[in-house]
Amino acid sequence: MQEMDVSVWRGDANGGGLEHFKVPARDSQTILDVVAWIQQHADPTLSYRYACRVGMCGSCAMMVNGVPRWTCRTHVKTVLKDNAITIAPLRNLPVIKDLAADMDPFFDKWVAAGGVHHPTRTRDEPIEILDPKTPERVETDTGIECINCSVCYAACDTVSNNVDFLGPAALQRAWTLYLDPKDADPNAILDAVSGKGGCHNCHSQGSCTLHCPNGLNPMKAIAGLKRATVSSFFKGGR
Amino acid sequence: MIRPHRSHPLWIAYLLHRLSGLGLALFLPVHFHVLAFALNQPERLDGFLRFADNPLVKLAEFGLVFLLAVHVFGGLRLLALEFLPWSPRQKTLAASAVAAAFLVAGTFFLQAV
To answer: In Å, how far from its chain's centre is CA A230?
Structure first.
């Protein structure tokens, strides 16, 4: 049976390095299959994170040959180079152990970017009916299928260079909430995304949009926030 | 070597914009220094202008005009990205900025030689 050379990053927050494994090649094999094979057949102490295996939960993202990817839906045949693969934990996040990155900074920034709903009605009032055809709603629809996998956050060089930068996913979430007519305080969102670490730090390198496994466009969302904050500044001086 | 997650056109457009900006920032003080000769050392300026007729300097000027043009057109692309309604053709626009810069710098070079 043909075998592949798989290098896996092993270690923890204090450091680590690549360890090498020979993994049997199979048809329709995903990177997550490779990692699971190593953990089940070569080294049971290998730590990694996954849940759904079908690209919905956003748990299994890792760096594959230096590119952030959802490993459950990345076929080996699309990334294998010279019969070798390198797998490492997500970039721009602290490592817990081996391939499991600490997602706390990523999720903390969703809250910091104003990702909290500000209601316009109480539970005693009828639900507000929205027209799905308004331009705002059509734009929102292009940004809401995020699975929180942090691939965009790992791809972003602005995140690497600026620890305060909120990152593509959190800013995209803020953009969709800003457009939501059921949100009572869009200015609070603009305040949250226009301070230190806000949308104006983005250099529009577009790595978030290129690597997003769900085909979303955080670069477009951040450009929208830049427009909204600038027009708010010129209209109301804030 | 550009790391794998960066090897795509818009990241290279970012790199080009940053490097051309740095190159122009280094050029400007030298530019003003030479222009200042016109006020206090005109004979030195004339000497420099004779040196600038050298074909190799013309080639360097082609590079300079390219840096300037690519920074201008790349900057216009970024302004459009941030202030105009979103266009999905960002890669095309970045490539157009480079093409326009080559056109301007090439025209300058053909005029100069």
So the answer is: 26
